[in-house]
# Entry
Amino acid sequence: MVPVLLVLLLALILFGAGFALKALWWIAIVVLVLWLLGFVVRPAGSGGKRGRWYRW
# Structure
């Protein structure tokens, strides 16, 4: 009985980790797209040059 419970627990942990990693991949893709869009739609700075959209 104990080995069956250990296998089920391991399957549950791996399923949860796989779901979390898949969600993290989607979040990473969305952040990458927003980051790339920031370079395209950044406002013009002083002197007509395109400025940086971030502050550092």
In short: The mean pLDDT is 78. Residues 2-40 form the longest helix (39 residues). The helical segments are 2-40. The CA atoms of residues 14 and 54 lie 38 Å apart.
